[in-house]
Task: inverse folding
């Protein structure tokens, strides 16, 4: 297991579209172990996408189970993930391991169902809400070359949405 | 040697203030840092970090043609830059109610007494001239948790001011 270097914006590799995984082999499992080690070594990191470490493949890991009092699915390895359903909207604050020293407000679906494959290639489906749904959407964005910077909303937007919710 | 200044600008709002000032600063070799620019009432206000070779009088001379033409008041202070030291807020406080003297003082006194560091505050007066309402949003950092702030704000709520505290749990991925 190795802690990998995380690419920092404006590295052009963060803007590329990642390719689906087709081989569920030992190389993938080694990479997943490195990706997870990298996520856990990063302060506050609850998710990491393969392109953030320079591997343009549709692979993300999310684990928000360390945050207090929120619903979660534990450690999720999401390979070739697809958001099947989106419901509601919530504005929340995000940062990114690839964007140091900046955080901002982003609107995301409040609840999602995501279908993906796990490390062995088996189909999995997860229902996610709140903080975890935010993390999954943020990571899947990386696979399409999108950063939370591309989705920032203003503070006033946040206030108006909340008042009239 | 480049040094940082805080440029404060106030004037009657009109289109083109930001463009004229920043164009002049750019042509004068200055680099911009973080900024807050907002229309308050009928005025436009700017707090802008400017990095330049010039000292404060030099920067003032550079800006003088623009500030005279647009009738802006400019004030310049030497500062330390200290970029890349953002403090992450962990609580948002939203306050609203019928406008009356003392809301800001009472809310912020209660928050300060319980260790809240205000990182960002914006407020508006809405409603109508005869029935104004006051709205304030604060992002801050509390070391002691939200429960202490809730208790401190309870007396204010009884006076009819709505105060909502929301934790900010920043997702980093």
Result:
């Amino acid at each position: 297991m190795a802690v990998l270097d995380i690419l920092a914006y404006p590295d052009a590799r963060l803007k590329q579209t990642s390719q689906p995984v087709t081989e569920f082999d030992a190389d993938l499992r080694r990479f997943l172990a490195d990706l997870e080690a990298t996520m856990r070594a990063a302060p506050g990191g609850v998710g990491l996408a393969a392109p953030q470490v320079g591997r343009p493949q549709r692979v993300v890991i999310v684990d928000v189970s360390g945050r207090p009092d929120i619903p979660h699915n534990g450690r999720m390895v999401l390979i070739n993930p697809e958001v099947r359903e989106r419901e509601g909207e919530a504005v929340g604050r995000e940062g990114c391991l690839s964007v140091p020293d900046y955080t901002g407000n982003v609107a995301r679906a409040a609840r999602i169902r995501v279908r993906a494959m796990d490390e062995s290639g088996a189909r999995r489906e997860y229902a996610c809400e709140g903080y975890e749904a935010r993390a999954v959407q943020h990571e899947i964005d990386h696979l399409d070359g999108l950063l939370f910077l591309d989705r920032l909303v203003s503070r006033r937007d946040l206030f108006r949405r909340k008042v009239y919710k | 040697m480049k040094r940082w200044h805080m440029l404060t600008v106030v004037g009657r709002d009109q289109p083109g203030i930001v463009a004229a000032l920043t164009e002049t600063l750019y042509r004068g070799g200055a680099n911009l840092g973080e900024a807050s620019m907002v229309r308050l009432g009928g005025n436009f206000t700017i707090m802008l970090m400017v990095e330049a070779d010039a000292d404060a009088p030099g920067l003032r001379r550079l800006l003088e043609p623009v500030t005279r033409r647009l009738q802006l008041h400019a004030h310049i202070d030497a500062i330390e830059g200290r970029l890349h030291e953002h403090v992450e807020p962990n609580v948002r406080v939203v306050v609203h109610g019928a406008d009356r003297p003392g809301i800001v003082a009472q809310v912020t006194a209660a928050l300060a007494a319980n260790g809240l560091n205000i990182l960002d505050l914006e407020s508006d007066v809405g409603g109508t001239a005869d029935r104004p309402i006051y709205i304030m949003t604060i992002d801050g950092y509390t070391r002691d948790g939200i429960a202490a702030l809730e208790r401190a704000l309870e007396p204010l709520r009884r006076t009819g001011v709505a105060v909502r505290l929301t934790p900010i749990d920043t997702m980093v991925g």
